[in-house]
């Protein structure tokens, strides 16, 4: 998960969605889809699909902090899923939910949340996830003069003070993959983390790759150092639902269909940045 607040810039595709991921729904999913009556799901409010995201809703995932305009990668994905489920634009309602609240157990005031939430086994104990709608890479951003601008290997970051947003896989990338000697700094939002980077409080900021591209392009003095290789199996963002939600199989089937027919890929091309410009930070 990553957060940043400025108008969205439509760039090119970040991570190519491989043909190996374009799989037909499983037999179980196919059976479940038979009960997914288009536009007649057991939603929180009858006849309406309620979707949540954070406030602010940051670029390039959303545009102008207005999810309902359908602009930005996640806004576009949310409406594409809604359409697959039989809910047109006028039958979608947006509500606010912080990232921290989304991954906690307990009843939710929405049918699903879309908020750059990476699917993990630990989180899946508290909530349901849909199939992954986006394949994630983590990256490192710094500013000129930090001393980390030209690093090539993870070992080069051993003595660097790094930071990331609280509760994110960006933070766990620091603790589990980079493992610097200095305790990483944690921030409630990427706005605060970027301010710390600019002030020199940290020497590098770890984010998902699209947000890293965006910050490098819009923050004075910021630059993208590189990206980290994906873990085995790959990190993915998933839509978040109540644990045991009756909608999970239907939402997953919708995501799978959008991946299989190329719709996810076309949305990605329109709204996200190209990963080819981010060199690999070697193990």
Task: Compile the SSE list and pairings.
Blueprint lengths: L26 H7 L15 E5 L19 H13 L6 E5 L2 H4 L9 E2 L13 E10 L1 E6 L18 E4 L3 H10 L6 E3 L2 H10 L4 E5 H10 L3 E7 L6 E8 L5 H13 L2 H9 L8 E2 L2
Parallel strand pairs: 1-2, 1-3, 6-7, 6-8, 9-11
Antiparallel strand pairs: 4-10, 5-8, 5-9
Helix pairs in contact: 1-7, 2-7, 2-8
Protein traits:
8 helices; disordered N terminus; D-Maltodextrin-Binding Protein, domain 2; three-stranded parallel beta sheet; 283 residues
How many separate domains?
Answer: 2
Strand content: 15-25%
Give the CATH superfamily of the largest domain.
Answer: Periplasmic binding protein-like II
Oligomer: single chain
Architecture of the largest domain in CATH? 3-Layer(aba) Sandwich
SSE ordering? HEHEHEEEEHEHEHEEHHE
The number of helical runs is 8
Radius of gyration: 19 Å
